Amino acid sequence: MTASVPLTQTVAREISRESLSVVTATRLGMIVFKALTAGHVDGARVEGLAERPSPAHYELVLEFLLGYGVLTKIRGLRRPLAFAVLGRPSLTAGEVACAIDPFAYISHLSAMEYHGLTDRVLRTLYLTTPKSSDWQRLAREFMQKQLGDSYATYAASGLPMLTGTKVPKILDKEISVTHRLHLGAYRKLPETDTRVATIGRTFLDMIREPQLCGGMQHVLDTFREHAPRHLSLITSEIDRHGEPIDKVRAGYVLEEICGLHAPEIDVWRRFVQRGGSRRLVASNEYSSTFSEKWCLSLNQ
Questions:
Q1: Could you give the CA distance from residue 113 to residue 108 in angstroms, rounded to a whole number?
Q2: Sheet containing 71-73: which strands, arranged edge to edge?
Q3: For 24-38, what is each residue's pLDDT tens digit?
Q4: Which end of the chain is flanked by fewer CB atoms within 10 Å, N or C?
């Protein structure tokens, strides 16, 4: 007679095999679904195998996992979008946010904090993620890749789907999200879902959106202190991915504020537009203080 194992224990065992500290509702739903449709797990038959996967299975498993402390709720989440796994390293808001949104990454002032570019104590977590229409397409492709031919069956089961959800707060951090058509460069941290903008991208974001990076004065102070050490990464990122106005602003800051020189900066001068009204900070009013070389209103 073939041994059988309860669905709850099967799912708990699968979670224990994974190294992540966060399990999202969608991930848990897929584990439940696969356990019920797999046939046998480790040579044992999963109880309830003949039943069609449903939200009732998910709720049964979640109640069991929370009741036995395998999973715990995460402070600050208004909806049960993700859960902390027992015995794993302490969670950060960034790790939870990147688990909930698999296409987001930590950016702007939060990326500056991660890279040691600011000493400010942050109460806000800054993230970048795709625009809504792209996000929905990516979510569908993500789940299709995870579920293969079973995607349609899962989607019809009522189990948690990957959906874009506005999350105002995680743990003790307020959440600020920037939506982009084209995502920037980021790196994934080992054994976590956490993704962080690269150093080069972080400096480009400082130029583009100083208001999300502590303000232009903080950006200029950061460039003065840290740009010399990271100059090649900064110029490479801006040269490849910066718009002409980004290159003009960065050229001014690197050359006239930081006193730095690089071949890329010399090339960027071709993007200078004389007789225009370009401003160092796009969101600020025009100032009569002016850089003749870079044709920029220095309105910081």
A1: 9
A2: 22-24, 82-85, 71-73
A3: 999 999 999 998 887
A4: N
Q: Residue 22 forms beta bridges with which residues? A: 84
Tell me the residue type at 164. Answer: G
- CA distances 71 to 55, 91, 179, 190, 238, Å, are 18, 13, 31, 22, 43
The CA-based angle 190-193-194, given to 5 degrees, is: 80
Write down the residue that tokens 């399990």 correspond to. Answer: 23
**Cβ pair 62, 7 in contact under 8 A:** no
Give 189-201 pLDDT, tens digit per residue: 887 889 999 999 9
Q: Whole-prediction pTM value?
A: 0.91
> What's the rounded Cα separation, in Å, for the pair 297 and 291?
7
- Token pair recorded at residue 12: 């708990």
**Which H, E and C letters describe the chain, residue by residue?**
CCCEECHHHHHHHHHHHCCCCEEEHHHHHHHHHHHHHCCEECCEEECCCCCCCCHHHHHHHHHHHHHCCCEEECCCCCCCCEEEECCCCCCCHHHHHHHHCCCCEECHHHHHHHCCCCCCCCCEEEEEEECHHHHHHHHHHHHHHHHHHHHHHHHCCCCCCCCCCCCCEECCEEEEEEEECCCCCEEECCCCCCEEECHHHHHHHHHHCHHHCCCHHHHHHHHHHHCCCCHHHHHHHHHHHCCHHHHHHHHHHHHHHCCCCCHHHHHHHHHCCCCCCCECCCCCCCCCCEECCCCEECCC
In the block, which residue shows the tokens 């991208």?
Answer: 201
Tokens representing 128?
A: 């970048």
- Gap between the Cα atoms of 59 and 46, Å rounded: 17
User: Which pair of structure tokens corresponds to residue 268?
Assistant: 């960027």
